[in-house]
Design a protein that fits this description.
The model has no long low-confidence stretch (mean pLDDT about 95). The two termini are about 20 Å apart. It contains five helices and no strands. It is an all-alpha fold.
Length: about 110
């Protein structure tokens, strides 16, 4: 299954969860909106941080959503790779393995 398919499947799962516990998922979404506002760091910089945390915690769905946001922001493969290099430095072997997955997500989301 491609990362795009996995992303779509995860979105379907979240829609179902949103129906089951709407107050909770709305509160979580509102937290995300508050945190992502430009401040000392830009939205893009915050998404880079979120991607790094997603790689470090090995959360594939998180990696997909934050990579999708970064792709929409127009980041380059080189920028993503630089973030992933830091993930590897901080996360060792697991950071290396999940950075490979994260780069594959970027490549699939930006493929024509």
């Amino acid at each position: 299954m491609s990362w795009t398919d996995k992303l779509n499947e995860t979105k379907t799962q979240l829609r179902s969860l949103n129906k089951a516990i709407p107050d909770t998922t709305k509160a979580f979404g509102d937290l995300g909106k508050t945190v992502k506002k430009d401040g000392a760091l830009s939205f893009k910089e915050k998404e880079y941080v979120a991607l790094g945390i997603a790689v470090a915690t090995r959360c594939e769905p998180c990696m997909m959503f934050h990579m999708e946001a970064l792709v929409r922001l127009g980041v380059t493969r080189e920028e993503v790779s630089d973030v992933l290099a830091t993930c590897i430095q901080m996360g060792g072997g697991p950071g290396l393995m999940y950075s490979g997955k994260a780069l594959e997500i970027y490549d699939q989301l930006t493929a024509d």
